[in-house]
Specification:
Elements lengths: L6 E7 L6 H9 L6 E8 L5 H9 L5 E6 L4 H10 L5 E4 L5 E2 L3 H11 L5 E9 L5 E6 L7 H5 L12 E4 H7 L10 H10 L5 E11 L12 H14 L6 H21 L4 H14 L3 H10 L1
Parallel strand pairs: 1-2, 1-4, 2-3, 6-9
Antiparallel strand pairs: 4-8, 5-9, 6-7, 6-8
Helix pairs in contact: 7-8, 8-9, 9-10
Length: 292
């Protein structure tokens, strides 16, 4: 049997007392158990740190780092700096893994030495961990254009993605200026270096609740505009019409967010019109959605 390679799992935690123990257990009970778990308490104001200190006593694979609040990116960067694993993955403190997540991913890595990053299909769960009839597909992301275009089925969440240490080192640190767009920014850099291979199995459970960072719609446009600016600087948005298409897709996401989560239909309509104006073919996409 081939020697197992260590996986580093980094969990940033801020006021995560309601979910952190369940999340940690889905890591510790993985069928592939050659792992270390680094949990970074980001200045939580609830009893998250107390829970983490108790969990640390139950399993020697757990390391708890405590720091003043400085955001999810700084927390991930700190965890990354302490990582010893051949593979690195980042799991948010309220999301869950299928117990075979790592086993399936490592099996995929072992099938091809050229693979540098992998992500899996996901299913939405609610605040009670009840599975919802909502899925996020995982098609192989072949290039940075797939990441920037926001194509359905080509969006890799951090919690369902695992990387070789080598490609993470090349991609660099998370940008602390970002919050809601930190994942996309990181994956722009990853996918500019290597494809992100999709696994068509539900191995990740993405929790949707009122405290999700992505529910902060007001900062989404600012964050993602910065991501596109950075992408332009590295030549990933060199085509005018591709750039317009990317922004149009972003505006559609903002429209849906305001319409549904922000409960502001006027702002939703505003962003729909904005999406169509900067990239007219979007009109056909919007029309098909309303017809269907």
């Amino acid at each position: 049997m081939a020697e197992q390679k260590l996986v580093t799992v980094v969990i940033p935690a801020y006021n995560a007392a309601n979910y952190i123990e369940e999340t940690v257990n889905t890591v510790l009970k993985q069928t592939y158990n050659c792992l270390e778990l680094i949990i970074v308490n980001d200045g939580s104001k609830d009893n998250t740190l107390e829970i983490l200190e108790q969990l640390k006593l139950t399993d020697s694979r757990i390391t708890v780092l405590d720091k003043p609040n400085s955001g999810v990116c700084d927390s991930r960067n700190l965890g990354m700096s302490k990582a010893k694993g051949y593979y690195i993955t980042f799991l948010d403190a309220d999301d869950l893994w299928d117990l075979t997540f790592l086993e399936n991913c490592i099996e995929k890595f072992n099938s091809d030495d050229n693979i540098q990053a992998i992500y899996s299909k996901a299913q939405v769960i609610n605040e009670k961990s009840e599975k919802q009839d909502e899925y996020i597909d995982a098609n192989t992301i072949k290039s940075v254009k797939d990441t920037l275009e926001w194509k359905k089925g080509y969006v890799a969440s951090m919690g369902c993605t695992i990387y070789t240490r080598e490609i993470v080192k090349k991609a660099g640190l998370f940008d602390p200026r970002l919050s809601t767009a930190a994942d996309q920014d990181f994956h722009v850099r990853i996918s500019s270096l290597s494809p992100i291979i999709g696994i068509d199995k539900v191995l990740f459970y993405y929790r949707v609740h009122d405290n999700n960072m992505h529910s902060n719609i007001s900062v989404m446009e600012k964050d993602h505009t910065l991501v596109f600016k950075k992408a332009k600087e590295i030549g990933a948005l060199s085509s005018y019409w591709f750039r317009q298409k990317c922004f149009s897709n972003l505006y559609l996401i903002l429209a849906g967010s305001w319409w549904k989560d922000g409960k502001n239909k006027l702002k939703g309509i505003y962003y729909i019109f904005k999406a169509i104006i900067i990239y007219p073919p979007t009109l056909f996409k919007v029309t098909r959605k309303f017809i269907n």
